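We emphasize that the prediction below concerns an isolated chain of 246 residues; any contacts that depend on oligomerization or on bound cofactors are therefore not represented. The input was used exactly as deposited, without trimming of termini.
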Amino acid sequence: MPNCNINHLAIIMDGNGRWATRQGMPRPFGHAAGVETVKRITEECSRRGIKYLTLYTFSTENWQRPAAEVKALMDLLLEHLTEELFVRNNARFRMIGDRTMLPTEVAQHVRYMEDLTRNNTGISLVVALSYSSRWELTKAMKDIAQEVKDGKLDTQDINEDTISKHLETEFMDDPDLLIRTGGECRISNYLLWQIAYSELYFTDTYWPDFTAEDLDKAIGYFNSKQRRFGKTGQQIEEENTKHNEE
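Result of the prediction step, given as a token string:
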């Protein structure tokens, strides 16, 4: 197991449907298999000391999928979003996304799980559900504009921190690493603001086949990178040397 210096890991869990098709099964079969991977990878991330794991579960665009597939996905949430996983890992459940779009039963269950795990101090499993970055940014701009209109905020005081504090993710740091499974190399409207300086890792492995070994490969890739945040490599090395000396 490699050293893990990741505070926030974000994952686009892609390939469930294609995995099922290759098995000669309907797409919901792949989503069910993907849920089991969520459980395994959550526990593996907890073991590695990752504080936040954010999973792209269902986008605002996914509501356009066939009604039967959408219902199957919502049913999977109700069936598998249970207390056991969170108690075993002292994990906290959080959701980011448009709650107004959720079926009433799902919205109530999400709120119940958030309240139930509120005091857990281990890994936070953050589910991006009915989420898209453009929706999130649009909502943030509207909220900021309303504060300006109400006289609570001056336009000259709006900066990057202002925007970040109005996003769904205001309670956690930006992702250090973004993993996308399934062979596609695109971001798909996911955490566009937050991943400005994240390392990106793409793998052909479908999400149901993603293992602890695959996770460690991604962590190893992250460890091989020098994160410069606009600075030069020499500046980073000098800062690290100074920090080690102190």
